[in-house]
Write a structure and sequence with these properties.
single chain; alpha+beta; globular; 4 helices; two-stranded antiparallel ribbon; three-stranded antiparallel beta sheet
């Protein structure tokens, strides 16, 4: 089964060797330098190394069949659980998207602020039309 077919059918696709072992080591080293005051951060894209990673993934020929035309990384999140910072989150679909400004439309619901970012849940047809969330949130 092709990667795109697998992704559309299952909601995910396993892509071997997308990131090399050395790249993983480099990412781990970068993550070790992040000083978290809470259990996580939604702001990793402010880091130059994460911007480079996002750009490399965006241009990876193994991923391009799964991405929309001209994709843009919006957020990169790190949660670091420990005995002191732990929480139970049941299996769920995170359908909220980050937006720049709040607007008035009754179809967009569940407005929230998380780490200085504004989030909203768009209507289902928006997710399906953009291809941005539907297949990734089954």
């Amino acid at each position: 089964m092709k990667i795109r077919d697998c992704f559309e059918h299952n909601g995910y696709a396993v892509i071997n060797d997308l990131i090399t072992p050395q790249q993983l080591t480099d990412i781990e080293q970068q993550l070790e330098h992040i000083n978290l005051t809470t259990a996580g951060s939604r702001e990793l894209l402010t880091q130059p190394w994460c911007q480079i990673l996002a750009n490399n993934l965006k241009n990876n020929t193994q991923l391009t069949p799964l991405l929309p035309i001209n994709p843009v990384a919006i957020q990169c999140t790190l949660f670091k659980k420990s005995a002191d910072k732990n929480w139970l989150v049941p299996l769920h679909q995170d359908l909220s998207i980050a937006v720049r400004h709040q607007f008035s439309d009754p179809q967009f619901t569940g407005w929230s602020h998380k780490q200085n970012m504004l989030f909203v849940q768009p209507p289902a047809q928006y997710n399906a039309a953009t291809g941005s969330c539907e297949a990734t949130h089954r």
